[in-house]
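Why run this: before we spend reagent on co-expression, it is cheaper to look at a predicted model of the complex and decide which construct boundaries make sense. The entries below are exactly what would go into the expression plan.
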Amino acid sequence: MNGPFVLPPFLTSKLVDIPDKIGKIDIPKKAIYRLSIYYRCLQKLRDNSVDTVSSTTLARAAGVKPAQLRKDLAYFGQFGTRGLGYPVDILSTTIRETLGREHLQPVILVGAGNLGSALLRYQGFGREGFEVIAAFDSNPEGARARGVQIPVLPNERLETFITENFVKLAILCVPVEFAQSVANRLVAAGIQGILNFSPIVLEVATDVTVNNVDLALELEHLGYFIR
Amino acid sequence: MNGPFVLPPFLTSKLVDIPDKIGKIDIPKKAIYRLSIYYRCLQKLRDNSVDTVSSTTLARAAGVKPAQLRKDLAYFGQFGTRGLGYPVDILSTTIRETLGREHLQPVILVGAGNLGSALLRYQGFGREGFEVIAAFDSNPEGARARGVQIPVLPNERLETFITENFVKLAILCVPVEFAQSVANRLVAAGIQGILNFSPIVLEVATDVTVNNVDLALELEHLGYFIR
DNA sequence: AAGTGTGAAAAGTTTCACAGCG
DNA sequence: CGCTGTGAAACTTTTCACACTT
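The model came back. Tokens follow.
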């Protein structure tokens, strides 16, 4: 039996309007999260040269129920063949496009301290198709000393770099007391999505998406369930 | 290595039964997440010698609506004074107890590679009252070389250590291909909560809680919202 | 026969609105 | 008066069940 797959809480609206052929449909935000999980499972299937998969099998791999998987996919179109299942390759490509991942997405990381520089060494982002193209720190030398390979620039260069490189995504790892002011600068410079590791609720314009990863909070949450 | 995907039905309910004076009440899981956020805000208020706070003020700090805050707190008892607000100190203590954090909670970390050893250096956990008392790695020397200060033990000692030290929480940072088998060992040894950093849906007994922190997935999710 | 797509029902969560208390 | 506590309403998400297609 598998335990709960706990998704982070959403502090904003729960539905997402996506432009459709005709009008707009409402898609649960959680469905978009699950899309990423499905994508990963599909890639694994493709690696194993499976070319068709049923909702039951894929759902089991992703840790959801078959009906939910079918409903999630149906939000984005009709991909399955009745009696047969879903074509792994087509579905995989479609999800990739839906998630806006056709092209390698440039990302910057701000705050290359302990956690920040570890994230840079962590291979996970690159493996999933993101390229962290630069890091920013008030003390670039210190970050380089922590073994960061990519360019580490001083904070002053933040705005020009974002503009010149059309960066839309940022990973924010600065100490909590600077998080809001740095976030303001990022947004002003054109950043549209922030992966925030600071334990603070960031206030940003509504067209900016903030995803919080609060490590202590996750651990704390577990504390409730152990007895 | 890539066996068939086997995952039992996703039976996890979205509600949590907590033992009450008389019977049991159902509490939204998300409310428990928010409890941690409230707790943090309360600590900040306490640091600033505020002794009473209204739902409006606290809710704003936590990024939720006042009514939701009141409802969340009401799940656990009546703490407020009508016309006045909530007593910061009492509320803070109560939440702390509710989250099972009266005592310092021992935690182990398994897999002291890049990400794992960074998490160990990261001060966030300790600051929030968790103590990572030991790390485990197939190559303890390597982890020590990465500057890990706490004891790094070989994987063989996992079971005995967990039993002898009554450890209930584990942070799992091993490479994805080992995640499930290590999780099995953790659970068999008595671990009840796993903070899982591997991009995999872990299968565990229903009485074990798994909290997933999937960094690439969070970034991918952001990708959907930028245009 | 096998398996998708989907309306409808059920379950879960948030918000409202106001009674009631200090 | 101000603010909590809460039933009821509104809303969101999940699950069911089955028509329908290959």
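Residues 14, 54-56, 66, 70-71, 73-74, 78-86 of chain A lie near DNA strand C (CB under 10 Å from a C1'). The longest helix of chain A spans residues 29-47. Bring this page to Monday's planning discussion.
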